């Protein structure tokens, strides 16, 4: 059997079908930037029955992997950088720095008939995830520390961190 060759116009046709990604059962992606995380989140979420629900939590987990995991920015450091209006500048600086530039977040997904499981792993040192898993969204009015609680309470039916906290399994069940 000869391999299937896709030409440029064939690829454009694939991207015109917004449901094409729903036909993919398993996948593994590696990303480094927020822009890549936004694009991948949009593609994956559109293939799910409740795209807005999935997009919010999925992007939060990917962004945490980039920002806190791979780039090593603590919550306190982020707060200070934001107050000084230097947050984006620091993100770009670290993405280019030799100690961080080769790091990536890997997301694997496995779609079953009634659920989709996301395994997200960053290359950071990890963190104490227990303090964030049981966080109360109504009690947290700061601009950081809410991503995990949001993902857990709004987007995913099950979330489980493992290892040092640099790996998370998030599962969403479909109606």
Give an overview in words.
This protein is α+β, with helices and mostly antiparallel strands. It has a single domain, classed as Histidine kinase-like ATPase, C-terminal domain (Heat Shock Protein 90). The chain has helices spanning 8-16, 34-46, 51-70, 75-83, 87-96, 130-133, 147-155, and strands spanning 26-31, 105-111, 115-121, 158-162, 167-173. Strands 1-2-3-5-4 form a 5-stranded antiparallel β-sheet. A hairpin with a 3-residue loop joins strand 2 and strand 3. The longest helix is centred in the middle third of the chain and has 20 residues, at 51-70. The protein is globular. The model is unreliable at 3-9 (pLDDT under 50).
Question: Can you give me a brief rundown of this structure?
Answer:
The chain is an alpha+beta fold and 175 residues long.
Structural class, by secondary structure, is: alpha+beta
| Strands, total number | 5
Number of individual domains: 1
What is the name of the CATH topology?
Heat Shock Protein 90
Topology of this protein?
Layout: H1 8-16, E1 26-31, H2 34-46, H3 51-70, H4 75-83, H5 87-96, E2 105-111, E3 115-121, H6 130-133, H7 147-155, E4 158-162, E5 167-173
Antiparallel strand pairs: 1-2, 2-3, 3-5, 4-5
Q: What are the key terms here?
A:
single chain; 175 residues; alpha+beta; Heat Shock Protein 90; five-stranded antiparallel β-sheet; 42% helix
């Amino acid at each position: 059997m000869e391999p299937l060759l896709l030409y440029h116009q064939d690829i454009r046709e694939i991207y015109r079908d917004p449901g094409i990604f729903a036909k993919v059962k398993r996948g593994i992606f590696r990303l480094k930037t927020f822009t890549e995380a936004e694009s991948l989140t949009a593609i994956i979420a559109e293939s799910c029955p409740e795209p807005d629900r999935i997009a919010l939590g999925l992007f939060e987990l990917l962004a945490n992997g980039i920002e806190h995991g791979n780039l090593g920015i603590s919550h306190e450091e982020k707060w200070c950088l934001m107050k000084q209006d230097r947050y984006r500048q620091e993100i770009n600086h670290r993405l280019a720095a030799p100690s961080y530039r080769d790091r990536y977040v890997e997301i694997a997904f496995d779609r079953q008939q009634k659920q989709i499981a996301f395994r997200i792993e960053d290359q950071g040192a990890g963190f104490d995830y227990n303090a964030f898993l049981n966080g109360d969204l109504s009690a947290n009015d700061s601009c950081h520390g809410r991503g995990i609680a949001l993902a857990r309470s709004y987007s995913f039916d099950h979330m489980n961190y493992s290892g040092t906290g640099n790996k998370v399994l998030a599962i969403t069940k479909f109606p």
